[in-house]
UniProtKB/TrEMBL annotation:
It comes from Anopheles braziliensis. GO terms for biological process: mitotic cytokinesis. One of its GO terms (cellular component) is centrosome. Belongs to the JTB family. Coiled coil: none annotated. This is Protein JTB. It is a single-pass type I membrane protein.
Length: 148
């Protein structure tokens, strides 16, 4: 297992993992530019006043209901399954499709962090118990050799 690796190989392996992580982050940041992403889907036939004038967000981005998605009653729910309600300065109230629901992303983030904490704690506990078992076996082997 890992205890059989030399220090030089462990440092090399960790360095490769760090380098791979940095490369993935650079590639991901190049491909996923949030500011340059345009809406590439057809806008519902309500209004596009939010493109021409200032607007106020009445209801933040939230998931569409299953009925809205299945029935296609609102065109904005078809593409991303999320919508937000806007009020333009002209007084017109429109809905538009949005990419992410903030509270849903936050919930997914925290569930991921909690699961990582649990897995890390279990890994540390197993590692500690394994080290304790190996130490006990080594001590018994030394005692047998000295007793013989």
């Amino acid at each position: 297992m890992i205890e059989n690796l030399s220090k030089k190989r462990m440092v090399f392996g960790i360095s490769c993992l760090i380098l791979l992580t940095i490369v993935v982050l650079i590639i991901e940041s190049k491909w996923m530019k949030a500011g340059s992403r345009r809406q590439e889907f057809v806008i519902e036939n309500n209004s596009t006043c939010w493109m021409r004038e200032s607007y106020e967000v009445i209801k933040d981005c939230h998931p569409c209901t299953a009925f809205e998605i299945a029935s296609r009653s609102q065109g904005v729910c078809v593409h991303t399954h999320n919508k937000e309600v806007l009020k333009c300065t002209s007084g017109e109230i429109v809905t538009r499709s949005c990419d992410r629901v903030a509270w849903l992303d936050e919930r997914h983030y925290w569930s991921f962090q909690i699961s990582l904490t649990i897995v890390g704690t279990l890994s540390a506990a197993v590692s500690f118990l394994r080290q304790k078992t190996l130490n006990r076996r080594a001590m018994l082997r030394i005692q047998r050799e000295l007793g013989a």
